[in-house]
Design brief:
This protein is an alpha+beta fold and 403 residues long. Helix content is 29%, strand content 25%. It has ten helices and 19 strands. The strands form three sheets. Strands 1, 2, 9, 10, 11, 12, 18 and 19 form an eight-stranded mixed sheet that branches. α1 packs parallel to α6, α1 crosses α9 and α3 packs across α9. The chain is globular. Bound molecules: flavin-adenine dinucleotide (FAD).
C-alpha cells in the first residue's frame, strides 16, 4: 500500500494514483477542492485528482482569520467577491454540512479625511453592484460597538465603512464540505502527495511528477496559495508575486461582546469574536519576503499594542495561540487567475491575504474555465497578462489592515 494516510470517514481513501487523469489539481486547500467539486457537480468531469502535499485544508485555508466580505474598491473586485459571498450563504444547505456561516457585518474605521474619501468611493461602488455598504458616523459606530475606544492611539475615529454583508465561517468546514461533495461524485483526493515537477511538451502540459510517481493528465489547475512561484517555476512560469508571511493570533474565550468584525487599516489591526468567544486578531504582513511560518514577538507586540488601543480592556486577556501562513502578494492586491503561458495549465494564484472569501467563486470560475476552455467574464480582469498591458486592478486601498 503506497498510501499511508487514513482519511476521515466521510472521505474515501484512494489507494494508488492512477496513471492518467483528465484534470490534476495541485493543492488540496479550499480553492483546489472547490474547483474539483464544481467540475464534478456542474460539468460532469470526475476523472480528477486533487494532489495535496500535506493534509486537506492544512495550508492557508486552516490559517486564515475567516473574514468574508465584498466591500472592495474596484468594480471588477466588487462584482467578483459579491458572487462569492452569495455562494457562501448557500453552502451549508448545499453541502448538508454546517460551515457555521455567521453574517454579522464588518466595520472599517476611518481616522483621516483621506480614508473617508476612499470609503465614500467604496460605498458607492458597492451599492452600484447591489452590495449593502454604508458610510456611518461616530455616533452610529458607538451604538454598533459600545466597547470601542473612539480615540485609539490619538487617532480619533471619524467615520466607518459599515458593510452589512460582512461575515465569517468555519474555514476548515468549507474545505471539508467541498472535499466531501467532490469525492462523493468520484473525484480522488490524494493527501501526502507532493507535486515535484510539471511535464511540458511543446508548450503544453502533459503531466506531473509526484513523490508517489508520475501521472499524465489532460490539464492542470494550480491552486497552491503561498507556493505559487515555486510550483509555477516547475512549469517554467515566472509569477508576478512576492511571498510574505502573514501572522494571526487568538485569545482565550470570553463572554460575547463583539458582534461585528472590526478593522482599522491605519492601525494595521482587525479583530472578530468567534462563535466560541475567542478574539481573533489579524494585522499586516511581515515586512520582508520569506518562506517561513514562524511567529514573531515583534508582530505580537505591535499588533496587540494597537488592539489594546482599540479595546483597552483586552490588556487583561490571555493569548492562546499565534501562527502564520505564507501569502503570495501581487503588486495590485488582486489575484492571478485564468490562462498561463503553458497550454492547458490554469492558474489560481496571487491570493495573498484575501483569498478565503473567494473560495466558492474561485472554484466555480476555475471549473468553468477547465470545462469550457473559455475564461469566464468575472475573472478576465485578473489574467496574468494584465501585468504586461498595465491594466492592474488596484485593491490596495481595500485591505482590512494595511500591508
Ligand atoms: P491553501 O489552503 O494554502 O491551499 C494550497 C495547498 O497547496 C496547501 O494545502 C499546500 O499544502 C498545497 N501545496 C503547495 N505546494 C504543493 C505541491 N508542490 N504539491 C501539492 N500540494 C501543494 N483571506 C480572507 O479572505 N479572509 C481572511 O480573513 C484571511 N485571513 C488570513 C489570515 C492569515 C494569517 C493568512 C495566512 C491568510 C489569510 N487569508 C484570508 C488568505 C487566505 O487564507 C488564502 O488566500 C486562501 O486560504 C487561499 O486558499 P487556497 O485554497 O488557495 O490555499
Amino acid at each position: 500500500k503506497d498510501y499511508p494516510f487514513e482519511q476521515n470517514a466521510d472521505l474515501p481513501s484512494p489507494s494508488a494514483l492512477k496513471p492518467h487523469y483528465d484534470v490534476v489539481i495541485i493543492g488540496g486547500g479550499g480553492h483546489g477542492v472547490a474547483t474539483a467539486y464544481y467540475l464534478a457537480k456542474y460539468h460532469g468531469i470526475t476523472n480528477v485528482a486533487v494532489l495535496e502535499k500535506g493534509y486537506l485544508g492544512g495550508g492557508n485555508t486552516a490559517r486564515n482569520t475567516a473574514v468574508i466580505r465584498s466591500n472592495y474598491l474596484t468594480s471588477e473586485g466588487v462584482k467578483f467577491y459579491s458572487e462569492s459571498v452569495k455562494l457562501f450563504q448557500g453552502l451549508s444547505n448545499e453541502f448538508d454540512f454546517n460551515i457555521m456561516y455567521s453574517s454579522r457585518g464588518q466595520l472599517t474605521l476611518a481616522h483621516t479625511d483621506a480614508a473617508i474619501r476612499g470609503f465614500r468611493q467604496r460605498t458607492e461602488v458597492n451599492k452600484h453592484f447591489g452590495g449593502k455598504t454604508e458610510l456611518i458616523d461616530p455616533q452610529q459606530i458607538r451604538e454598533l460597538v459600545p466597547s470601542l475606544n473612539m480615540n485609539p492611539a490619538d487617532q480619533p475615529v471619524l467615520a466607518g465603512l459599515w458593510h452589512i454583508d460582512g461575515a465569517t465561517a468555519r474555514h476548515d468546514a468549507v474545505a471539508w464540505g467541498y472535499a466531501k461533495g467532490a469525492t462523493q461524485r468520484g473525484v480522488e483526493l490524494h493527501q501526502l502527495t507532493e507535486v515535484t515537477g510539471v511535464d511540458v511538451d511543446k508548450g503544453k502540459v502533459t503531466g506531473v511528477q509526484t513523490n508517489r510517481g508520475k501521472v499524465s493528465c489532460g490539464c492542470v489547475v494550480q491552486a497552491v496559495a503561498g507556493h505559487s512561484s515555486i510550483v509555477g517555476a516547475m512549469a517554467g512560469i515566472r509569477m508576478p508575486i512576492t511571498t510574505y508571511p502573514l501572522q494571526a493570533m487568538v485569545t482565550q474565550p470570553v463572554k460575547p461582546f463583539l458582534n461585528p468584525l472590526v478593522s482599522s487599516p491605519a492601525l494595521h489591526c482587525y479583530v472578530q469574536q468567534t462563535g466560541r468567544g475567542e478574539l481573533v486578531f489579524g494585522g499586516g504582513s511581515d515586512p520582508y519576503p520569506l518562506y517561513n511560518t514562524r511567529s514573531t514577538m515583534e508582530l505580537k507586540e505591535s499588533l496587540l499594542a494597537h488592539a489594546v488601543e482599540l479595546f483597552p480592556f483586552m490588556a487583561n486577556m490571555r493569548l492562546m495561540r499565534q501562527w502564520a501562513g505564507l501569502t503570495d502578494m501581487t503588486t495590485d492586491y488582486s489575484p492571478v487567475m485564468g490562462l498561463s503561458p503553458v497550454e492547458n495549465y490554469y492558474l489560481d494564484a496571487g491570493w495573498g491575504t484575501w483569498g478565503f472569501k473567494a473560495t466558492p467563486i474561485c472554484g466555480k470560475t476555475m471549473a468553468e474555465l477547465v470545462a469550457t476552455g473559455k475564461v469566464p467574464e468575472l475573472i478576465k480582469p485578473f489574467s496574468m497578462a494584465r501585468f504586461d498591458t498595465f491594466r492592474q486592478v488596484n485593491e490596495m486601498g481595500a485591505t482590512a489592515a494595511s500591508h
